[in-house]
């Protein structure tokens, strides 16, 4: 049996944990630079659609709702707290997103009762409400989770039994576009073929659909039949590429501001490399103007900079990134976004040296590793960017616009909640 644990209205729930006045209020969380609504409490959903730009929300509705800037530091820490509890009780889990995880319940005799226990203890220790869907496959567990969240009579837990007579009716009522992994374009093609529900997809020729579209769709058909085809991934599988990027709060023409932005991206990317024990062999740097400004000149350059040898040392990556930035920067453009991607990643324990390249001596290598470990430990304990390479200007154009951000209650000493 596989379970899908999903935190209910996660961003809004995180805000409510430390501000009980938000309970039962219509809350919307805004995207970077306070652009669009990216998360909604149940109370907000009847009034504002997902993705709606904040400036388009009518004033009469605006007065009835609460809009908050994204507080990713708070959400990330609360996510870590929730799933560390899950992993205390179930080692075999797969983190799927910031608020979702698949659970291997195979060894639990009474998995429904166990999920009720897990749900209760997460709420007690973090204040975050969760729902868990249970079934034979990942795809069916996703459907079960959707039912658990929508119907309060299930108390947050729902078991979708493939042998239950209600199973057929459940899939008949589920539109094709709501199945996990079926995107808008694919659902339109399937609907044109007369496949508009999960039940019809389940009874389709899996092999034929696999040849027409992809092996992924073939597996989805089999998963709907109760045959598990999508395995639980291990938590420590490293990413093949690592991207760090950000849209700016205010467009800028200044090279020194772009240098600061990509330096922050490079530092964050190097930190992620070390976390998954990887080394990068090259880095990609890119800039973007705002494509939504029709009258502004457009320029979207990028460049790949090879590294002398595979590394996760922040200093070496920053040096390469700054070199790439200078080669693509052009004056008189208003830049709206920058980013850095770590490419050609290799396991640090399996790195292959180039016979002709200059390699670090063992003493220097050990000293550099110790320096990076110390940097990561300080920033993990005291907060990101407590120690960084180069200063950070809080008023720089590239910083996010966040006019309605709440406190980072769990990660900043000066923003801890105060009980009076």
Q: Into which percent range does the helicity of residues fall? A: 25-40%
- H-E order: EHEEHEHEEHEHEHHHHHEHEEHEEH
Q: Which percent band covers the strand fraction?
A: 15-25%
* Main structural class: alpha+beta
Query: Structurally, how many domains make up the residues?
Result: 3
Quick overview of this protein structure:
Keywords: DNA damage, DNA repair, SOS mutagenesis, SOS response. The protein is α+β, with helices and mostly antiparallel strands.
Task: Provide structural commentary.
The chain is α+β, with helices and mostly antiparallel strands. The protein has three domains: 8-72, MutS, DNA mismatch repair protein, domain I (3-Layer(aba) Sandwich), CATH 3.40.1170; 75-224, 2-Layer Sandwich (Alpha-Beta Plaits); 242-382, DNA polymerase, Y-family, little finger domain (Dna Ligase, domain 1). It has helices spanning 10-18, 59-62, 72-89, 111-126, 138-150, 166-172, 184-192, 198-202, 206-212, 215-224, 255-275, 314-328, 362-382; strands at residues 2-7, 27-30, 37-40, 66-69, 93-97, 100-104, 130-135, 157-159, 242-252, 278-289, 302-311, 335-343, 346-347. Strands 5-6-1-7-8 form a five-stranded mixed sheet. Strands 9, 10, 11, 12 and 13 form a five-stranded antiparallel sheet that branches. A three-stranded mixed sheet has the order 3-2-4. The two termini are 46 Å apart.
